[in-house]
Amino acid sequence: MLAEAKVGPNQQADGSVNPARITRIGGMAKADGQGRYYEQTVRNNIFSLAFPASSGSIAAGNIYGAGAAASTQFALWNPVNTGKNLSLLKFTVFTIAGTSPAGPIMHGMASIVPTINSSFYTGGIQNNNLGGAASVAKGMTNQGGSALTGGGATTYIRMADFWMTAGSIAVLNGLKMVEYIDGDIVIAPGTMWVPLWPSATAVTWGGSITWEEIAI
47, 197 in Cβ contact below 8 A? Predict the structure, then answer.
């Protein structure tokens, strides 16, 4: 049986059977056909939540050792019975003004119950395929912080991929603070992800989180 290959891109519907793809000089084509997240984005599975700016000090719910029901400024919740996991892909954080705390930012999580539903909302969550389907998740982006009644105490998952020294934001160098998580943190139904700072210093900050929703 003669094995055949095709030069050039294959543009076929789902379920089609296609020949392997080769280059114009006969080599096997192994380059990505598109960006890393394109496939899942066009299938309406990639979402983002942005937190433009806090209004003052880092809230108690966004620092190490946050207690149950603490006031929280930025968090992502996967409600119970969604039937999907939230696989985290990218996390960004930035400081605007004030005095930064010294040390790393931690990825934190907490188990929460349905009564917390009124504290979260879906309006800030965007499908990265603009105009695509709505997310099953809910988010918290409250400038001053909102008490998460029904939320448990946070625990560390691991360090984020950046840290900073203490000092005035006005005199510190700018930093590119983007972490490609690539799915090594998964938020199961009934749990919440939250970024945790070392201390509640007077600093204005913001960030964003991007994730893929995967059926369980």
Answer: no
Domain ranges in the chain are 1-31, 43-215
Closest CA to 145 of 115, 124, 127, 119: 119
Instruction: Retrieve residue 153's tokens.
Output: 């105490």
φ/ψ region of 60 (left if φ > 0, alpha if ψ in -120 to 50, else beta) reads alpha
User: Would residue 183 be called left, alpha or beta, if left means φ above 0 and alpha means ψ between -120 and 50 degrees?
Assistant: left
Model pTM score: 0.85
Q: What is the mean pLDDT of the chain?
A: 84
Catalogue the E-assigned strands of the chain.
5-7, 20-22, 46-51, 71-78, 84-100, 103-111, 125-127, 138-147, 155-164, 167-168, 178-180, 186-187, 191-196, 203-215
Instruction: Write the pLDDT tens digit of every residue in 55-107.
Output: 888 888 999 988 888 889 999 999 989 999 999 999 998 888 777 777 888 99
pLDDT in tens, 14-51: 777 777 777 666 777 666 667 889 989 999 999 999 99
Token pair for 100:
């930064």
**Residues 193 and 109 sit within 8 Å (Cβ to Cβ):** yes
Token digits for 99? 């005095």
Tokens 């394109």 belong to 38
Helix (H) or strand (E) holding 182: none
